[in-house]
Amino acid sequence: MTGLEMAATAGIWTLEILAIAVTVALSVAYITYAERRVIGWIQVRKGCNRVGPAGLLQPLADGLKLVLKETIIPTTANKFLFIAAPIMSLTPALVAFAVVPFGETSLFGIWDGPHVMAIANLNVGLLYIMAISSLSIYGILMAGWSSNSKYPFIGAIRSTCQMISYEISMGFGLVTVMMLAGSLNLADIVHAQAGGIQHWYMIPLFPMLLVYFISGCAETARTPFDLVETEELVSGYYTEYSGMWFATFSLAEYGAMILISLMTSILFLGGWYAPIPALDFIPGTFWLLGKTAFLIFVFIWFRATFPRYRYDQMMRLGWKVFLPWALAWIAVVGIFIYTPGLDSIINFWMPWR
Amino acid sequence: MLETAFFNLFAGLSILSGMGVVLARNTMHSVMFLIFCFFNAAGLFFMLDAEFIGIIMILIYVGAVMVLFMFVVMMLEVNQAKLREGFLQYLPLGGLIAVILIIEFIAAAQSGVFTEGVKATAVHISQQVNNTAEIGQVLYTRYLLGFEIAAIILLVALVGAVVLTLRTRKDAKYQNIAAQVHVRKEDRMRKVRM
């Protein structure tokens, strides 16, 4: 490879990364806007409507306000880790997008076959997502510890317990997807669901869809699992944060929310395929982003609907309800795959077999 | 060329962070250095085409084991200065081991095993070869017995840990959620004829 080719590859990679990172940051800004408007609509009030037409400039105004605010660093804090913690929680949320396939394109017929639109089409994509999203715990732990104050410390421990608990049932939920798709490659998982809504994994794996999505809700600390950051618990691990560093945590949280929605659409809702094959003339990316947008709406809907869980109830849900469900469903799928007679039923969802 | 550069980067950073684990004054910093060290080790695995092990390294060690490590370290009040008292009395023994290890490393590197033959010239396997599927296939057929034995040992350890720490406190209030959900109107209310 010559130097020029290497430079060209590096340039393309940079563009790809920017295309995803900038889009995620912008979507986060406008999801906060959508959240306020949707919750306003549900609660029969207006929501933000003053800045710009229909309040559309509100996220920019909020961003500006947060940048201009003073960043307070407590004198007893461990300064390096205090500043590094928001970055450590934001980085995994963005890095995980590297393997997400956003659709297939042949670039208007310039390329021979369809190419998967992902920065890296990894063989172990699903494991990569799990590995990277488990790293966001460190940002929280570091934020709580380095603040050198009681409330963030307890809040960090509380939210870490929550994330570890729900990660387990989430991982076991994904095992059933791997069993049906026979691959860890996200594009292959989507390909295995081709051919209309009856092929999507939400049909055979409906309980796992619920487990995955609700666990995702707990992972990203959204209502009804947001006791990580409630006011009555003094905002959990980021009590001491202010200004832009505080906003970085929210950025990471909303980024993780987009990721969970994307992954749910890819793993259970047929990814970039249309529900009816006749509708496939609409580009797949629109389908994928449409499903994702709907799931984000569901997140917001949850927030407007459900009261907060109590801590012990939340732990009970994770360990005593979701984990047995997921383990039982792995056994059910396994029995279906290997029992003669029953395997003809499950083979409908395993086209590669 | 690029590969050598990346190898040097990962190897150098893992050695530096390994030193950081030992030398850092703050226990939390040591833990962070150890996490960084694991990351670089995972990077080295990726360069050996062992992407499955690399990812599992991050998932298990960084994502799970080190979180528990950090949990424990966070809650301990470790007085580093006290720990370091009499630290130097171990220097002769530790230094001896380090010197022997370095001599062995150099001798191994000089012996020619790594410079020629299959290992030195091994090309990367193609991207089509799926490491994960291959590992799964041998693990669940050829090495099934060993795999199952390991799984049972881990299960026993897990149950043992739970049994050792499980204690029911008499004074704590417990809720029976199923009983709460199944409660009927008749259980709570009583008609009284006046």
Secondary structure topology:
The complex is a heterodimer of chains A (353) and B (194).
Chain A (H helix, E strand, L loop, with lengths): L2 H40 L15 H11 L10 H17 L8 E2 L9 E2 L8 H9 L2 H11 L3 H32 L4 H6 L14 H14 L23 H26 L15 H22 L5 H28 L4 H4 L7
Antiparallel strand pairs in A: 1-2
Helix pairs in contact in A: 1-2, 1-9, 1-10, 3-5, 3-9, 5-6, 6-8, 6-11, 8-9, 8-11, 9-10
Chain B lengths: L1 H22 L3 H21 L3 H25 L4 H4 L7 H20 L7 H4 L9 H9 L4 H22 L11 H5 L3 H4 L6
Helix pairs in contact in B: 1-2, 2-3
Structure report:
The complex is a heterodimer of chains A (353) and B (194). Chain A is an all-alpha fold and 353 residues long. Helices cover 62% and strands 1% of the residues of chain A. Chain A has a two-stranded antiparallel ribbon. By secondary structure, chain B is mainly α. Chain B has one domain: Four Helix Bundle (Hemerythrin (Met), subunit A) (Up-down Bundle). Chain B has ten helices and no strands. At the A-B interface, helix 4, helix 5, helix 6 and helix 11 of A face helix 2 and helix 3 of B.
Overview in brief:
The complex is a heterodimer of chains A (353) and B (194). Chain A has helices spanning 3-42, 58-68, 79-95, 125-133, 136-146, 150-181, 186-191, 206-219, 243-268, 284-305, 311-338, 343-346, and strands spanning 104-105, 115-116.
**Helical content class of chain B:** over 70%
Encode the helix/strand succession of chain B as letters.
HHHHHHHHHH
Name of the CATH superfamily of chain B: NADH-ubiquinone/plastoquinone oxidoreductase chain 6, subunit NuoJ
Topology, number of strands of chain B = 0
Radius of gyration of chain B: 27 Å
List the uncertain runs of chain A. Answer: none
Instruction: Provide the helix percentage of chain A.
Output: 55-70%
Q: Predict the CATH topology of chain B.
A: Four Helix Bundle (Hemerythrin (Met), subunit A)
Q: What is the domain tally of chain B?
A: 1
Stretches of chain B where pLDDT falls below 50 for ≥5 residues?
A: none
Number of helices, counting only DSSP H or I runs of 4 residues or more of chain A:
12
Oligomeric category = heterodimer
Q: What class would the helix/strand composition of chain B place it in?
A: mainly alpha
What composes the largest sheet of chain A? Answer: 2 strands, antiparallel
